[in-house]
């Protein structure tokens, strides 16, 4: 009796996955390090100076972390209520933050003492930042006003009340110390000029604005709110260039990488998306909870994500030095018996003793060996296999069909196993890699179960979807056959014309010979 041959799993090309330089670059990060905070992390800001420590605002305190530390190296706890918007100054020596009580506090990084308190807002201050000159602070609050403060004296210099709802985002210009941008829940983004005392540009985002961001050239402005990320051209009077809708929930934060100014956005759908210069998504970071804050260190060394569950997720970039160290081969044993290794080529007079290799069968192969085709199909349709390795399930189906027992394997199924099978068919039946065997399975399933009144409305709905999908696939195949027939006719007519032209034209040598004669 011949020995049992395991099921051959074919390798299929992955569809829709293009490996680019951007993809390789953003995959080069270590697994995330989780740091637990006291409450939701609402703001993360990296210091512009080495070693690029970062400030994490959560609950009633602001923690300063080192790039590789998992414990805070300094904490600011002078807040009576929730703190918001902790931001560094351009020299990395001062830190400013708002609070729920409406006060703005200024801290010295080298000490824990609050240097200044700016009092003037009547409600919570969510957005604070230094203007580019470093001597003034801009703030946006829930009292519908944004204000500019003098760092030295703590005096309010100017106030703007053009917004009609909460102000939750502010971004100062780094090229002009008198310009800054604000985003509000009144669906507008405004550019203010301190010298004029009013806004000089207004953009309608269409949704409550959660974050605003200026490109380094300051020709482009990014605003996030709702499910949309919108890019505005400030040189053309605030004209909208792009509207992105890649997230499934509200986009809460955005930042720019230092390499080619790649845009990163975070959302309540627990995803961080990376866009290239054409605003196409090139990478995606998955998180465990909804994202509230996002920041990236200079030179893209660290990506920090703050979530609603109070967890700070930190990813560090891999370095080539570490890769070379880990990739170095360990020195093999120095025993004489291992000198030849596996690459040793035997000589002609050598006597080879072959060791039989024990064959380990997969669970579905053992069941196929015992002619338990229905159980083998159930094993191939388990959750991990059908989602991560659909080619395994397709290979088992093809093997069962080759044996002529496919109908027996599909018959007599309960509600749970039939639901798994139908979901697998609906997901992969239109995949060109698997469509040929799965179309056969779909026809058999409909013949077996569609006329029988199902006990579950879920199964009935899935069967109806499968029937509609097979009808659509049949129409597509019919249209493709028509196109193929048209192309065959065109090719045949072109071939016939070429043959006629070849026969009609006499050879040049023969004609010249007749003329000479």
Keywords:
517 residues; alpha+beta; four-stranded antiparallel β-sheet; 11 helices; elongated; disordered C terminus
In short:
By secondary structure, the chain is an alpha+beta fold. Helices cover 27% and strands 30% of the residues.
Tell me the fraction of residues in β-strands, as a range.
25-35%
* Secondary-structure-derived class: alpha+beta
Radius of gyration: 34 Å
Helicity range: 25-40%
Please tell me about this protein's structure.
The protein is of the alpha+beta class. It has eleven helices and 28 strands. The strands form seven sheets. Strands 1-28-27-26 form a four-stranded antiparallel sheet, with no helix packed on it. Strands 2-3-4-5 form a four-stranded antiparallel sheet, with no helix packed on it. Strand 12 (146-150) and strand 13 (156-160) form a beta hairpin. The longest helix is centred in the last third of the chain and has 48 residues, at 457-504. It is elongated and about 90 Å long. The termini are far apart.
């Amino acid at each position: 009796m011949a020995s049992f041959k395991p099921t051959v799993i074919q390798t299929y090309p992955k569809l829709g996955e293009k490996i680019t330089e951007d993809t390789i670059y953003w995959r080069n990060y270590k697994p995330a390090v989780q740091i637990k905070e006291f409450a939701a992390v609402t703001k993360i800001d990296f210091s512009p100076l080495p070693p690029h420590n970062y400030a994490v605002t959560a609950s009633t305190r602001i923690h300063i972390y080192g790039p590789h530390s998992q414990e805070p190296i300094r904490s600011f706890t002078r807040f009576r209520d929730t703190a918001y918007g902790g931001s560094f100054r351009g020299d990395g020596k001062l830190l400013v933050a708002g609070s729920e009580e409406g006060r703005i506090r200024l801290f010295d990084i080298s000490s824990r003492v609050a240097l200044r308190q700016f009092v003037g807002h009547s409600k919570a201050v969510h957005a604070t930042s230094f203007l580019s000159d470093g001597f003034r602070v801009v703030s946006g609050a829930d009292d519908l006003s944004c204000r500019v403060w003098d760092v030295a004296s703590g005096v309010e210099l100017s106030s703007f009340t053009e917004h009609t709802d909460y102000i939750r985002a502010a971004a100062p210009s780094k090229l002009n110390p008198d310009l800054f941008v604000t985003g509000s829940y009144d669906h507008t983004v405004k550019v203010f000029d301190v010298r004029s005392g009013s806004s000089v540009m207004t953009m309608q985002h269409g949704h409550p604005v959660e974050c605003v961001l200026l490109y380094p050239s300051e020709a482009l402005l990014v605003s996030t709110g709702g499910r949309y990320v919108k890019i505005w051209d400030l040189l053309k009077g605030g004209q909208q260039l792009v509207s992105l809708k890649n997230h499934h929930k509200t986009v809460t934060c955005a930042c720019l990488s230092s390499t080619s100014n790649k845009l990163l956005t975070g959302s309540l759908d627990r995803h961080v998306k990376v866009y290239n210069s054409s605003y196409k998504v090139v990478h995606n970071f998955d998180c465990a909870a909804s994202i509230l804050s996002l920041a990236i260190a200079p030179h893209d060394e660290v990506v920090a994500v703050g979530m609603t569950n109070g967890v700070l997720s930190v990813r560090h970039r891999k370095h080539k030095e570490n890769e070379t160290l880990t990739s170095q081969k360990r020195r093999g044993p120095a025993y004489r018996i291992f000198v030849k290794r596996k690459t040793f080529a035997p000589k002609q007079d050598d006597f080879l003793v072959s060791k039989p290799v024990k064959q380990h069968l997969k669970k579905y192969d053992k069941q196929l060996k015992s002619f338990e085709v229905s159980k083998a199909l159930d094993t191939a349709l388990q959750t991990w296999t059908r989602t991560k390795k659909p080619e395994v399930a397709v290979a088992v189906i093809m093997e069962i069909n080759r044996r002529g027992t496919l109908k027996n394997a599909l018959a007599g199924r309960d509600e749970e196993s039939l639901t798994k099978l139908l979901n697998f068919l609906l997901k992969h039946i239109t995949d060109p890699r698997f469509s040929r065997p799965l179309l056969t399975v779909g026809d058999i399933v409909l013949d077996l179960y569609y006329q029988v009144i199902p006990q579950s409305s879920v199964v009935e709905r899935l069967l109806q979807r499968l029937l509609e999908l097979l009808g659509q696939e049949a129409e597509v195949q019919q249209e493709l056959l028509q196109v193929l027939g048209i192309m065959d006719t065109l090719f045949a007519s072109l071939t016939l014309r070429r043959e006629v032209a070849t026969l009609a034209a006499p050879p040049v040598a023969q004609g010249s010979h007749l003329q000479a004669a």
